[in-house]
Queue: 2 jobs
Job 1
Amino acid sequence: GTGPAAEPVAGLPADFRWGVATSSYQIEGATGEDGRSPSIWDTFCRVPGAVAGGENGDTACDHYHRMPQDVELIASLGVDTYRFSLAWPRIQPGGSGKGNPRGIAFYDRLVDELLERGITPWITLYHWDLPQELEDAGGWPARDTAHRFADYAEIAHDALGDRVRHWTTLNEPWCSAVLGYDTGEHAPGRRDFGDSMRAVHHLLLGHGLAAQRLRAAGSAPEELGITLNLGTATPAGDSEADRAAARRADGMGTRLYLDPLVHGRYPQDVVEHLAERGVTLPVEDGDLETISTPLDVLGVNYYTGHVFSGTTEDGATTGEDGLPVTRVVPRGRPRTAMGWEIVPECLTELLVRLQKDYGLPTVITENGAAFDDTVAGDGAVHDADRTAYFADHIRAVAAARAAGADVRGYFAWSLMDNFEWAYGYDKRFGLVRVDYDTQRRTVKDSGLWYRDTIRLTRRAAAG
Ligand code: GBH
């Protein structure tokens, strides 16, 4: 079957923002063109074993050469907003010095193509493609990278800020810091817990410095924000150990970022946990004021929510590393092709909690799912599982609004299948299928459903 039929989603207003999202390294290709310098992902992809299948972003979706057709595709989905990221190594090769006119020209054209079709551009300044030169100088664990980021942000905003009013500084600093510098699953592939936590502070500082520059600029953004990957942390049971484990997970995944951003202080329990692990955040005078520069909107990337236990399977509360146990317990729910459990109700819970604890308007800047798509004889993709995922999560957003959360928009991840980081091209998140042999794009059933849902919901809300 083709999955659930499109119907209006009750409770989403006529001005609710509907979009699709992508990121530069995942779709652009053309990594050596028009003066772009290498990023940490170009380097990381060449490390044997780092990326499934030894794949890389050299060609990806070849979006750099197919941009006008891709904008047509976006328009055909009926969305009002397109969230994309700028490649820092195109805008400012090497991560220092002047802007690169040839790199900037690509985004100039993209913005103009979008505006001509009435689509609002929503720019993310940093979606993980750090110029390799800056990594060689120490990367995010080094304080100077925060200042380099602010300079780059100003160059980008000077070039595009006359037409682009929606700016996100960072995408998912947790991923940059933890996957990049602690677990080594992402570029640059380093493995040092202390470095990862120093990276957290410098990412947040870079965000704050960039936010100040954008606020001070002539055409200040209408909506300035940051995007975090967020979920829920539910204790497995009532025990003190389980509750402490969930609180630790929430501290390391959510409060470590949102408390300084919104309240201007790091959470005391997290600071103590880091001290137990021998780590001090490199906070200098004034940093927390900078980091807590007021935000207009919080971008939320949601994929799943977790249950935590504070004991091992054998009942021990301390692991081999001598640290308290923080163990994810499966819920036994269906999973996507990434292995992530599908728990839409946790999106409602998350949004209501964010409203209560942080009080910012939110936008879902990413939500979506990889499934093992098959292509029918006529080329169609009947991805009923993906459609159901979107339907359930969009309803979860409406439920959060009904419960008082100020959620203003929803961006599907992703416009099209793309380079899924360490998983290569095997994991497909697109509303649109990409045939990587021919670069042919085909709107999947989920994409048609999304288009119809937006149209019906807008029409119903307009009355
Ligand atoms: C996003 O990251 C990225 O912004 C985007 O570029 C990417 O393509 C997309 O998601 C899909 O991966 O194994 O159950 O503990 C998402 C990052 C998703 C981080 C879920 C942690 C926990 C899953 N994350 N996740 S689990």
Job 2
Amino acid sequence: MVLELKNITKNFGGISALTDVSFQINEGEIFGLIGPNGAGKTTMFNVITNMFAPTSGEILFLGENISGIKPHKITDKGICRTFQNIRLFSQMSVLENVLVGAHCRNKSGVLTSVLRTKSQKHEEKSNHEVALELLELVGLSRYEDTIAENLAYGQQRRLEIARALASNPKLLLLDEPAAGMNETETENLFDLIKKVQQRGVTVLLIEHDMPFVMKLCDRITVLNFGKKLAEGTPTEIQNNQDVIEAYLGSE
Ligand code: ATP
């Protein structure tokens, strides 16, 4: 098991964003987290990455309790995320964006080249190689020198994924990766997430595009008003009467 969420509750003042939510994600799964607006999905990502501490509950990552660990340490442990709104270094090149992710993996990355020892320079080269390989994976090799903000929307989304992968995560959290994409971009994204899975990375994804979720995910948890409404395979979720009434029926 990669991730185990045990009885997670998160309150913001009088608002209960998550109430006693538990689920587990197995190694190598693509796991979907769905539900209506305000259901608590992004809050769950924020709790997993400890941007907010849960009010109560426990988070186990590869069997280790990571509740209370600082967000950057969570990345070191092997969890990386993308955000609902694109957060690239917009004035940096495509390659540089991925290198930033790779530097998060290697502590030497924060040193200037003058300070680096010979072996650290070697690491820098391997970061470069990793970045090029990831650009190929996401189909952006020929844009390596392009300034990030000049990429098309779907390409920027794929670049975010490459940057997240550069930190070498075991678990990748994707917050609405298909939002705003056209049909071709969504198809490319689908293929990319499958390839990420084939590389051995477990994926947890929030998404409102139901055909995309149902085709892509191995299992799904549905949240509604901060509570777990259902969990199961895409077929089980599509046939669940509570889910149809609360969410799918209104799509
Ligand atoms: P969407 O699909 O619209 O992105 P969501 O399922 O991701 O929604 P959340 O963003 O997690 O939902 O929000 C869940 C609830 O928690 C909402 O009522 C929201 O207003 C509240 N909430 C989230 N973050 C905060 C915060 N930092 N302070 C106060 N309330 C918050």
